Amino acid sequence: xxxxxxxxxxxxxxxxxxxxxxxxxxxxxxxxxxxxxxxxxxxxxxxxxxxxxxxxxxxxxxxxxxxxxxxxxxxxxxxxxxxxxxxxxxxxxxxxxxxxxxxxxxxxxxxxxxxxxxxxxxxxxxxxxxxxxxxxxxxxxxxxxxxxxxxxxxxxxxxxxxxxxxxxxxxxxxxxxxxxxxxxxxxxxxxxxxxxxxxxxxxxxxxxxxxxxxxxxxxxxxxxxxxxxxxxxxxxxxxxxxxxxxxxx
Amino acid sequence: xxxxxxxxxxxxxxxxxxxxxxxxxxxxxxxxxxxxxxxxxxxxxxxxxxxxxxxxxxxxxxxxxxxxxxxxxxxxxxxxxxxxxxxxxxxxxxxxxxxxxxxxxxxxxxxxxxxxxxxxxxxxxxxx
Lengths: 249, 128
Known about the structure:
Order of helices and strands of chain A: EEEEHHHHHH
Mean pLDDT of chain B: 73
Shape of chain A: globular
Number of strands of chain A: 4
Distance between the termini of chain B: 52 Å
Helix content of chain B: 55-70%
Radius of gyration of chain B: 27 Å
Distance between the termini of chain A: 57 Å
Number of helices of chain A: 6
Oligomer: heterodimer
Strand content of chain A: under 5%
């Protein structure tokens, strides 16, 4: 394995399962998804076990997360958006905890695979579409027809709006996946430099100091990115839900 | 604990300071509640909003172009119009990408402009 920066993303079958010709194996990816769910649930359950008026540190952290998502949702989708709170909070916690699990050495990063992020973003768009049409009927299509545009330009603008709508799930999934993938590869490459240079004698060890500093700095950056990506995913989900709740007025 | 060695009457001074702080807190809480009631919760921007904005813009732009290219290619395959579908839809996708970016940055307003009390702050005013 040595310094292969891609090796960390390999999917390995832990328990091979095959039902009716469909490969349903329990892989390392499944294991870390289960760990993510377990981690998020354990954090929230343990933190809120002994509820007090004056919160303990853990309870405070859990309340902070709750309020953060609540504020994000209310700011972008209004009070009517609160019925989607469980959905947005689940997405936020899943992505956040999955990203943070990925920060452990030798752990697998679930969100570095585009199939996972694509599934998450498609869920968001499907919820937006279904709720939008269910609540507003065909009025939801007003989303694509901006008002106050000259008649000549209207078909053209509508086409651009539709394209912009279709690009949402793609940008949502690509952003999360690309950030996690690129960050982990960079980290691995720089850490590999340290080892490679360090084994090349005294001058090599001197030379390894720079990549070591870079690795430490990148680790900090990756923690920021891990939280930031969860936040961006949550806030965009809120904005898209807002479109479904109040389309084009 | 400023009056550690107790000059005049540390207990009284401390009590006064505490009740002063309590009143202050009460006042601020009241203001906050009133603001929430009106729906103008003036929460300070989270410090990472700038970085979040940057990431959104980059991905939105690229995704617009990708979608345009994919649809154009698909149209060409279906109707045999190579290369016109790709050319036209690539440009449209480019336009969609730019549109997303300027909306995210708040330069352009969303299609019909919000303003129903739920209107998000300018930075989030994307496709209302």
